[in-house]
Structure formats: structure tokens, C-alpha cells
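User: Continuing from earlier, I have the next pair ready.

Assistant: Great, send them over.

User: Here they are, in order.

Assistant: Folding the first of the pair now:
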Amino acid sequence: DRCPTGVVREDAFKELYFQMFPKGASSSKYPHYVFNNLDKENTGVINFEDFITLLSRLSRGSLNDRLKWIFSLYDLNGDGCITRQEMTDVVQAVYDLMGKHTDAPVDEKTVAQKVESLFTTLDLNKDGVITLDEFTEACSQDSTIAYNIN
């Protein structure tokens, strides 16, 4: 109903996203990151097929398919690795999306601790960036992460 042409622009996507997650702060950048991830060709729109493909991949895809998509969401500039800044930006956006409905107050220190914990787990060669191979290997080997993704 909201997208009769079968395509949606980012502003409408964000509006729909915040309706699905009403507790989140409307300033969260998370829907922006999801939109950009779906809009691979930078056309400024995503179509229904792209959206359904994503939903299918996330709900029925293999663990590896899901991990690849999650990695691409965190790899904001698309260069094949996740930096601490990219991880920080996405983690902050997730906390913003959750709004004030978190177990403990979220501040910069909380975000930094979460990012450091993720890097300790995922940056297998400790070079300061996380590659797709490191990400998929670490997540596949961590039973808690694999369980949560499945």
C-alpha cells in the first residue's frame, strides 16, 4: 500500500522502519545503513524484489549467506573489511534503534566496550580490521553467535 510502484526511496523506507521499531529513536542511522546495503547500485531506490530477496536470505538462507549479509551491513564503505569506526557507527545505530529500552543506559563508553569485545572475538589475526573470512570463521565457530543468527 505504501509503495504502489514497487520501489521505495530512503525517506519512505525509514518511515516504515520506524513504524516497525517504534521504541527506537527516530534519529537512528540503522535504517540508512540497511537501505544503502540494499541499494547496491546507488539508485536511491530499492525495489520489492530486492527487499524480498533479503528477507528470504535472512530467514531461509544458510548461515554463511546470513553472515555475508551481516558483514556487508557493517562494511559501510564496501572495501571488504570492517574497521573499528564502521563497527562503532553500526553498534551505535543499533543502540539508537532500541531507544531507551535497554537493560542499562547506553553511552559512548558502553558502545566502545561492545566494539572492543566484538573486535577481540572477530579480528582473528589482530590487525585492526575484520575481513569477511575472519568474520565468517569466528561467527561460525562461536556457538552463541551461530545460534543467534540461526
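And the other member of the pair:
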Amino acid sequence: VDRFLSLQLSISSGLSAAEVKTMKFLCRDKIAKRKLESVESGLELFSILMEQQVIAPDQLGFLKELLQHIKRRDLLLLVEQFEQAELHAPDDQPDEHEKPFDVIRANVGRDWKKLMRELGLPEVKLDKVETAYRYDLEEMVFQALREWQKWKGKDAKVADLIKALQGCNLKLVADWIED
């Protein structure tokens, strides 16, 4: 799951209707009145703020201001923790939006389980992914890679993906990732 969207969901679910209303008021200079009138949840508000490029994973100042104004230190702390995690994330950790996942997703096919085993992903996680995405092979591959990334955390490296691909005789896919 995208960590920034997950952060927004956590914040939104912690907001009362009155707090959302206050936040809408504070956004009047950023969002057109007509758009603001239709907003009923924090998620809708955050979605518009993202569209307007007012908030982004690397642009959290305005979101923090909003949370300070409504005196929600607990939610502000979530944003600060998110920022810290982003700062300390290694540069070579694969991101589901980067090339390695897309290349693997498009080219591994039925060998996905072999690859995941080579990466050391537990069978329980493989079964969970297979059950959830039974009828969509590419999505199975993608979700399995995300499970591996979550499972390994900061130790999930592109180099490990390349090594595992080579270990599964998927050298061409490994070469594409290296390029």
C-alpha cells in the first residue's frame, strides 16, 4: 500500500465532522468554493489538496498546519513519523512505482512463486497473495513483490531482486532491471 495514502486514511478516519469542517474553512484560499462544498470527509479534502499540488509525500507543511490549527497533536505526530520514515528510507529500496516492479510484473509470469521463494518470502504470504489475486497473474506478481518489500523493510534492495531473478534463470529480466 502506498504509505502516503495510508497516512491520509489514518488521519481521515481520526477526524470528526466538525474537524473536517474547520479544515475545509482553512482551505478556502486553496480550493474553489464549489469544490469545497461537496467535501464530506478528510479523504476527499486530501484528494483535492493533492490534485492542487498543495500536499504531497515530500510536501507536508500545509497538512501539518491544518492539524495544528485543529489541535490534533496525535495526528500531527503521524505526519512527523511519516516524514522521518521517508528521510531514512534507503535510496535503492525498490518502490512499487519504479521500474523493477513493472519489469518483473510484466515478464515473470508463472515463475513468480519461484522468484518469491528465491527472495525468501514465507509460504504463508505467497498463499495469501495467490488467494487474493487468483485471476490476475500480473497483480499476483505485483502484490507478492509488495509483500516481500514490506516483509524485508529497509533491507529490500534492488540488488536482491536482480540476484533472485538470476537464481531463477530469469537473466534477461534481471538485465532489463539493471539497465
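Worth noting for the second one:
The CA atoms of residues 21 and 64 lie 16 Å apart. The longest helix spans residues 137-152.
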